[in-house]
Amino acid sequence: MKIKETPLKDCYIIEPNIIEDERGYFFEKFNEKKFEELTGMNGHFVQDNISKSFYGVLRGVHLQKGEHAQAKLVSCLEGKVWDVAVDLREDSPTFGKWFGIELTPENKFQLYVPRGFGHGFSVLSETAIFSYKCDNFYHKDSEGSVIWNDTDLNIDWKLPQEVIKLSEKDESLPKFSERNF
């Protein structure tokens, strides 16, 4: 696997080395030891989540804070998503910046979203199945969030605003300037 840096500190794209022939293909999706050697980041994950969403669905921007903070390794198993990581670590040189990448089963990319980052994605295909590996367990009381359309962050979600579908919870998240973490 290849690790590529993004413009955000500690946020990485993971590209697999694909072995392909007339029978199909094979690749190692993740290797904890290699990941830790190449990035210096923790590569041990304890929880896997899968979501299915439809065109126009936008989930985010979410994080877990404090002792329950989570790093995530995300990928798209079916369809196409625009995946966004936002550096919300106040002591980071890239604080308040975001990075987006298209994730598909065809490109087989994964995005490593470190602890202290917000995360969200929008669905660009008819349906999408999305995978999240987390390095800490979900803890409801440790949720933090920022509204998806915050003007300070100015995230491009790659969707016309009129097609965006949000959960009730995601419609009422705080602004970046009023964040709850």
Automatic annotation (TrEMBL):
<comment type="subunit">
    <text>Homodimer.</text>
</comment>
<dbReference type="Pfam" id="PF00908">
    <property type="entry name" value="dTDP_sugar_isom"/>
</dbReference>
<dbReference type="InterPro" id="IPR011051">
    <property type="entry name" value="RmlC_Cupin_sf"/>
</dbReference>
<dbReference type="InterPro" id="IPR014710">
    <property type="entry name" value="RmlC-like_jellyroll"/>
</dbReference>
<dbReference type="GO" id="GO:0008830">
    <property type="term" value="F:dTDP-4-dehydrorhamnose 3,5-epimerase activity"/>
</dbReference>
<dbReference type="GO" id="GO:0005829">
    <property type="term" value="C:cytosol"/>
</dbReference>
<dbReference type="GO" id="GO:0000271">
    <property type="term" value="P:polysaccharide biosynthetic process"/>
</dbReference>
<feature type="active site" description="Proton donor">
    <location>
        <position position="132"/>
    </location>
</feature>
<comment type="similarity">
    <text>Belongs to the dTDP-4-dehydrorhamnose 3,5-epimerase family.</text>
</comment>
<keyword id="KW-0413">Isomerase</keyword>
<dbReference type="GO" id="GO:0019305">
    <property type="term" value="P:dTDP-rhamnose biosynthetic process"/>
</dbReference>
<feature type="active site" description="Proton acceptor">
    <location>
        <position position="62"/>
    </location>
</feature>
<comment type="function">
    <text>Catalyzes the epimerization of the C3' and C5'positions of dTDP-6-deoxy-D-xylo-4-hexulose, forming dTDP-6-deoxy-L-lyxo-4-hexulose.</text>
</comment>
<protein>
    <recommendedName>
        <fullName>dTDP-4-dehydrorhamnose 3,5-epimerase</fullName>
        <ecNumber>5.1.3.13</ecNumber>
    </recommendedName>
</protein>
<feature type="site" description="Participates in a stacking interaction with the thymidine ring of dTDP-4-oxo-6-deoxyglucose">
    <location>
        <position position="138"/>
    </location>
</feature>
<comment type="pathway">
    <text>Carbohydrate biosynthesis; dTDP-L-rhamnose biosynthesis.</text>
</comment>
<dbReference type="InterPro" id="IPR000888">
    <property type="entry name" value="RmlC-like"/>
</dbReference>
